[in-house]
Amino acid sequence: MSLFAKLLGRAPKLDADALRRLSEWQALPPVPLGEPFETGRYVVLDVESTGLDLNRDRLIAIGAVVVEGGKVVLRESFEIVLRQDRVSTKDNILIHGIGGEAQREGVDPVAGLLDFLDFIGKLPLVAFHVTFDQTMIKRAIKEYLGFEFKHAWLDLAYVMPGLLPEYARRYRALDDWSGYFDISNYARHSALADALATAQLLLAALPLAETRKSFSYKNLQELEQAQRWVSWSG
């Protein structure tokens, strides 16, 4: 989409197949958020981008895994690199390891984002520091698919200190909590590897949540909101 079109807020032109896929996804029924952990099904994700500027940087990659019944379902994973018109900087590539050639030969963004929607369906999402992942995905979907992506999200960056308040000031990053629970990460800053580490952190959180009488995704969302208030007021 051209800069001029973006400024005017014009929707991208999608072909008939893309419109059909998007319509089918939008017609999916919402998933109840009050299901107990032992029957709940969630998608845990992470993204890589051209940088950390929420206003200017672009989505490069998405990695995601399914958690169902209190287990990571390894056979249900998703990883995609979106084709980039402009390759990110060398310093940025050193972080996520997605080279210039891989970025230029990535998947067409329309097809890739539709694949992502097909993978997640209407399942609730989990991430660590949701604001970044959510912003990057929402912007890309708005640009390439032309609609506002509204979905259920859960942020473990607030859930974990809510469950273990005695560590709230010491542990802030995914690496901090991974170290506490002895969670290994085979390729830090790979979207799929970080999604898998985040999924393992979610599994570590579930029994702790139950001791606090939180038995569902919705309960954890309530805990997250309470912890956000504590963080803002503190």
How is the secondary structure organized here?
Layout: H1 3-8, H2 16-26, E1 41-49, E2 59-68, E3 71-81, H3 90-96, H4 100-104, H5 109-120, E4 125-127, H6 130-145, E5 153-155, H7 156-163, H8 174-180, H9 191-211, H10 217-233
Parallel strand pairs: 1-4, 4-5
Antiparallel strand pairs: 1-2, 2-3
Helix pairs in contact: 2-5, 5-6, 7-9, 7-10
Distance between the termini: 43 Å
Tell me the CATH architecture: 2-Layer Sandwich
Question: At the third CATH level, what is the topology name?
Answer: Nucleotidyltransferase, domain 5
Oligomeric description of these chains: single chain
Helical content (DSSP H or I, runs of 4+): 40-55%
Q: Helix tally?
A: 10
Show unreliable segments.
1-8
| Strand proportion | 15-25%
Q: What is the element string, with H for helices and E for strands?
A: HHEEEHHHEHEHHHH
Radius of gyration, in angstroms, nearest whole number? 18 Å
| Overall tally of structural domains | 1
Number of strands: 5
Can you put this structure into words, describing what you see?
The protein is of the alpha/beta class and 234 residues long. The protein contains 10 helices and 5 strands, in the order H-H-E-E-E-H-H-H-E-H-E-H-H-H-H. It has a single domain (38-233), classed as Nucleotidyltransferase, domain 5. Helix content is 47%, strand content 15%. Strand 2 and strand 3 (71-81) form a beta hairpin. Helix 7 packs parallel to helix 9 (191-211) and helix 7 (156-163) packs across helix 10 (217-233). The longest helix is centred in the C-terminal third of the chain and has 21 residues, at 191-211. It is globular and about 50 Å long.
